[in-house]
Design brief:
Length: 792
């Protein structure tokens, strides 16, 4: 009795139940009235198994397996079938049983066994099978994309072991296919490529592999360019995965590099910015859960957009888009794949037809498509992108789909535009600089002769008036050449350490009398300004130009605000390093984007014919850059224009200069060698020097002057030479020779324009007195006297 009670308690506490049937298969006993899963067993008593089995073919086949065992009086184990009874839900059961026989007669007496509810287990198995099928579908799709994308792809784990790749990668990098296998290390691949000569002759493969592998692990090679010995050029973009490892995209850029070289050799400096390529990530694992997580992580970390579009008639529908669409265009990939946002409608209207034509033309010629165009981001901004794809065709050759990548190249486009603008400004600068040089020589002859004529005609008031008018006109011509030279950045400057707040204050006092009564000038100078080393006269001219431009922009009157303050390197919009900022603002009509783009162009003016030379801002631009600074220009139509000049801070403090009183025409009797290849200039300057009492010996070149010095250097007190001359010895070179060999001999250099880009650099003309053409007799007399005295 105790054993039977214990048996009943064990049976009721378990998840399974015990059962018995008679010889006719009718249930006669259950160990519990209801299972823990809610299956009512009492209702089965007195009935056979087929009374409550679900009547579908598969389930009847399962029942037949059990009945066959019963007919054969055999034991059976863990045989499943589905129970369906009354209004309750169908349940999966699994039973085991042994036949029982009468202990006296040995006759068959039915079965005794155990059963359990396996519904939850079966449902879990079915869910797992469905999940496995879905993961396999996703994996197959990713493999198709891998195989057809035009880029090479290689994925490494955190140990730098290769775990995924495509055939295009093997072709692009030139690795021996025989060594490519799952688990091969980056070190082995690099060493094999080095041994095959991919990195050039004389390379130690192991040492190179150690060096490159270390840089890869340190994250120092996220981008690289390489040209193989066979001429194939490729770019590598490497992205690191969140949990270790990396994925690299290799793009064959051989044709693009060749086109760029042919199109613009001067743009080699932009090679690193030529394209921002997309990284596509892909890795597989044998574990289903890990595979799902890894694939999602891989696609979510691609910075560009990988896509697949299918052709439906004349339309293209996005079937797949990676997470990179969010960063590229600000659109979720599901919005593109669902059709809520039409990808084709994001293309700029001006380029929509051209892109469609390019797709047709490229696919008519082959399977590759490439185009550059603008797309509209979700924030409304337009960005340049590069679209590269490969066509998927049917057996008949019909294009079914396109698979490719879309990359952001907006930065590259901006740099290309800046390069074109810089080349244009350089070409115009060379032209204007050359014109100014020749004009300065002509003006030197004119002013020199006018000064001498003015002295001889002092008794004739009318003649004196005419000469003074001519001198005034020549000086205006000199100002024009200075503007041209400042624009071309070839005007030799005479920089001094200045307090530009005080200097600009002096200019503003003058401007208040010249800008007119309808213009209010406001000057704001911050305290404790840093010193700036700059040409004061050019700064005066710059401020006058900017004030006049501001005045002309406000024909009905207004306020011009000039603000001067310190600008440390962390100020918004400021260049690197400390600067002093001079800001000039007006409240005029402003400029639109097209006008703003041409504002620094020489001879460009918005004032109309006859109202401006168009050199004002060009001169300012040249002066600021020649002084080592930077200029910023901003304008809003209807609100006004702001010009910001950033002038570099000087480490030397400004000094208070006391100008000594000098006579108008200091004279002398010393002997001067005058060197200039321009006959008219040389003859005029020689006559001017003689009128000041000096003895003059003329030379047409530096070589001729050196020969005179070697013959009788003791005869001379000063060498006065033009800076730019034909022959092997120019002005600065002659000056250095004189300084080295004849230390008591003075040197004075003159220039109208230093055509040699290095001729007027500080290193070449350091410590030499320089007189800029055209010059007045008074300037010549004072400077030549100073040069002679300095040598003594």
């Amino acid at each position: 009795m105790l054993n039977e009670q214990r048996f009943q308690e064990f049976a009721l506490m378990g998840a399974d139940w015990f059962w018995e049937t008679d010889s006719a298969g009718r249930f006669t006993y259950f160990s519990t009235a209801e299972t823990q899963q809610g299956l009512d067993l009492v209702g089965f008593l007195g009935r056979v198994r087929s009374d409550f089995v679900r009547k579908d073919p598969d389930n009847l086949a399962r029942l037949e397996c059990i009945d066959a065992k019963v007919r054969a009086r055999e034991s059976f184990r863990n045989l499943p079938y589905v129970v369906s009874y009354g209004d309750g839900p169908a349940r999966w059961c699994e039973i085991s049983g042994n036949p029982k026989f009468d202990s006296t007669t040995g006759a068959f007496d039915g079965y005794r066994g155990v059963g359990r509810d396996i519904t939850a287990l079966v449902e879990a198995r079915e869910a797992l099978e469905q999940r496995q099928a879905e993961l396999q579908r996703q994996s197959d799709l990713l493999q198709v994309i891998f195989a057809n994308v035009p880029a090479g792809i290689a994925v490494y784990n955190r140990k730098s072991e290769l775990i995924a790749w495509n055939e295009r990668w093997i072709e692009i990098v030139g690795v021996d296919p025989s060594i490519v296998r799952f688990g091969v290390t980056a070190h082995e691949i690099i060493a094999a490529r080095a041994s095959a000569g991919e990195y050039g002759p004389g390379v130690d493969p192991e040492a190179l592999a150690d060096q490159v592998a270390a840089r890869l692990l340190a994250g120092e090679m996220d981008f690289a360019e390489h040209v193989r010995p066979n001429g194939l050029a490729f770019e590598m973009h490497r992205g690191r995965l969140p949990e270790g490892g990396s994925v690299s995209i290799y793009l064959d850029v051989t044709e693009r590099k060749r086109s760029e070289r042919e199109r613009q050799e001067a743009a080699q400096a932009l090679a690193d910015l030529n394209e921002t390529l997309e990284r596509r990530i892909s890795e597989r694992t044998v574990e289903l859960a890990e595979s799902d997580r890894f694939q999602r992580t891989l696609m979510s970390n691609v910075p560009g957009m990988v896509y697949r579009t299918i052709k439906e008639g004349a339309l293209w529908t996005v079937e797949f888009a990676s997470e990179g669409s969010r960063g590229l265009i600000g659109v979720a990939p599901e919005d593109l794949m669902s059709g809520r946002i039409q990808a084709q409608m994001l293309i700029h209207p001006d380029e929509h037809a051209a892109v469609r034509a390019k797709v047709k033309a490229d696919l008519d010629l082959g399977d590759s498509f490439e185009a550059e165009y603008r797309v509209r981001r979700a924030d409304g901004k337009w960005r340049w992108v590069l679209d590269r794809a490969r066509a998927i065709r049917s057996e008949s050759g019909e294009v079914l789909a396109l698979e490719g990548v879309v990359l952001d190249i907006d930065d590259r486009k901006m740099v290309e535009q800046q390069l074109h603008q810089a080349q244009r400004m350089e070409a115009i600068g060379q032209l204007t600089g050359g014109l100014a040089h020749d004009f300065n020589n002509y003006l030197a002859v004119i002013l020199g002769n006018l000064d001498m004529l003015a002295e001889r005609g002092q008794g004739d008031a009318e003649a004196t008036k005419l000469v003074e008018a001519a001198i005034s006109g020549a000086q205006r011509g000199a100002e024009l050449t200075r503007s041209l030279l400042a624009f071309s950045r070839r005007q030799p400057l005479d920089p001094k350490v200045l307090d530009i707040g005080e200097r600009i204050g002096d200019v503003v006092r003058l401007l208040r009398r010249t800008v007119g009564e309808r213009i209010a000038l406001e000057l704001r100078v911050a305290p404790n300004l840093w010193p700036v080393k700059i040409d004061g006269a050019q700064l005066d001219s710059t401020m006058i130009n900017l004030a006049n431009n501001a005045r002309d922009a406000m024909p009905s009157g207004g306020t011009v605000t000039i603000e001067v303050l310190n600008a440390p390197g962390d100020m918004v919009d400021a260049p690197a390093g400390d600067h002093v900022l001079v800001e000039v603002r007006d409240c005029g009509g402003g400029m639109d984007a097209a006008t703003l783009a041409k504002a620094f162009d020489p001879f460009f003016s918005t004032k109309g014919a006859g109202r401006g030379s168009g050199l004002g801002l060009s001169m300012v631009h040249g002066f600021v850059h020649q002084s080592g600074g930077a200029i910023r220009l901003a304008s809003i139509v209807g609100k006004g224009t702001t010009v910001r000049l950033f002038l570099p801070r000087s480490v030397v403090q400004s000094a208070i200069l006391v100008k000594p009183a000098v006579s108008k025409y200091p004279r002398g009797t010393e002997s001067v060698i005058l060197v200039d290849d321009n006959d008219a200039v040389r003859e005029t300057v020689a006559e001017t020097l003689k009128s000041l009492g000096y003895r003059v010996t003329e030379a047409v070149s530096g070589d001729a002057a050196l020969k005179l010095l070697e013959e009788s250097a003791g005869r001379f007190d000063l060498v006065m030479s033009d800076m730019v001359m034909p022959g092997r010895i120019d002005g600065p070179a002659l000056g250095r020779i004189v300084r080295q060999r004849w230390t008591t001999l003075g040197v004075l250099l003159t220039t109208g324009y230093a055509g040699d880009p290095d001729a007027n650099t500080p290193e070449r003309v350091a410590d030499f007195d320089i007189l800029t053409k055209p010059f007045r007799k008074e300037d010549l007399a004072r400077v030549i006297r100073r040069a002679i005295e300095k040598a003594r």
